[in-house]
Amino acid sequence: MSRILLLHGPNLSQLGARDASVYGTATLDDVVDLATRAAEPAGHEVEGVVSEYEGDLVTRLHEARTDGTDAVIVNAGALTHTSHALADALAILDLPKVEVHLSNIHGREQFRRTSVISPVVDGTIAGFGVNGYALAVGAVIGLLGARAARA
Length: 151
Ligand code: DQA
What we know:
With 151 residues, this protein is an alpha/beta fold. The protein has helices at residues 20-23, 28-39, 54-64, 84-92, 131-150; strands spanning 3-8, 45-50, 71-75, 97-101, 123-126. Strands 2-1-3-4-5 form a 5-stranded parallel beta sheet, with helices on one face. The mean pLDDT is 97. The structure holds 1,3,4-trihydroxy-5-OXO-cyclohexanecarboxylic acid. 1,3,4-trihydroxy-5-OXO-cyclohexanecarboxylic acid is lined by residues 11-12, 75, 77-78, 80, 101-103, 105, 112.
């Protein structure tokens, strides 16, 4: 049983009320449920954490180093494009790390096309809506398997 931390940043608590043409109609609870159901068959559990505050997200990542977390999936919202603090916190963690975005950030406004966290994660999934979370869980399971094989 592995524990996957599913971390969400600012405004993702408002999913369902945001522009549906960009973010769809699912709520954050729906997203966490979807990820949980994707992880369960492989025997993994998902812990959903959301905060509007950069420092809370940084602190939660610090805790992940020692609290039994095995992998991280992160949608940092707009902090994706600005937060070197979050990038530094992710860099500390020697765990599988996958970045997710509901929208295709590369096809949107210029400021969204740069992710300061992409360099410190294993990979990024963007543009597939909520299905991106199932893809992210699959990616994490693959990364955990590869680590187990190396150990
Ligand atoms: C987002 C993309 C970000 O640019 C935006 O600020 C969000 C959501 C996404 O999931 O597509 O809040 O991370």
